[in-house]
Specification:
Shape: globular
Strand order of the largest sheet: 1-2-3-4-5-6-7-8
Oligomer: single chain
Structural class: alpha/beta
CATH architecture: Alpha-Beta Barrel
Order of helices and strands: EHEHEHEHEHEHEHEHH
CATH topology: TIM Barrel
Distance between the termini: 28 Å
CATH superfamily: Aldolase class I
Length: 211
């Protein structure tokens, strides 16, 4: 199994699109990355299986057309059903080992909030990359406590697993994240809420590639 960590990981939240349809916003965002380097995580935890599967199929078409990877949050069955590029595991999900037992070729991404979680993920052969954060304050990550900061990110990178910085990351802060050794950045609202999602994606990728 081989999967290159994205430079930008766009995590969905259909309630953070300023009232616009999620698929429309994601399609517009991916237009800002014609050269690739972007992956999308479908993360709509409140949807039932049927609704999630329908949305995943539509999003698979959008990402495929744009040359972007698609990861499905938690639901390995949905990821396999739509031909997604991988599954993203959170703290309450199956572990990478369990995923490997019935989907051995499926790349796994994981959410991490500290060095111990990164170290554990780095030992799993099927984990392609991890999201690490929050780096700065952000409303969606308040339940995880105070921000970890750049030095924590720098320390976690040393375990050798590609890490994507999440939490309060802007285009202006992207370079500081990459300077720690992070492989890329992850975001939700910075792109989804933007009036021009493609412009924000281009700004992020430009900032990342300058590092």
């Amino acid at each position: 199994m081989a999967f290159t960590a994205p430079r930008l990981y766009l995590i969905t939240d259909r309630r953070a699109t300023a009232g616009r349809p999620l698929l429309e916003v994601v399609r517009a965002a991916l237009a800002g990355a014609p050269g690739g380097g972007v992956a999308v995580q479908l993360r709509e935890k409140d949807l039932g299986a049927r609704a999630l599967l329908a949305l995943a199929r539509e999003l698979r078409d959008v990402t495929r057309d744009a040359g972007a990877a698609l990861f499905v949050n938690d639901r390995v069955d949905v990821a396999l059903a739509v031909g997604a590029d991988g599954v993203h595991l959170g703290g309450g999900s199956l572990g990478p080992t369990e995923v490997a037992r019935f989907a051995p070729g499926l790349p796994v991404a994981v959410s991490t909030h500290g060095r111990a979680e990164v170290e554990a993920a780095a030992r799993a052969a099927n984990v392609a990359f991890a999201v690490f954060g929050p780096i700065w304050d952000t409303p969606s990550k308040l339940p995880y406590g105070p921000p970890l900061g750049l030095e924590a990110l720098r320390g976690a990178v040393r375990f050798g697993l590609p890490l994507l910085a999440l939490g309060g990351v802007t285009a202006a802060r992207a370079g500081a994240c990459l300077a720690t050794g992070a492989a890329g950045i992850a975001c939700i609202r910075a792109v989804l809420e933007a009036p021009d999602p493609a412009y924000v994606v281009r700004s992020f990728l430009t900032a990342v590639e300058k590092t």
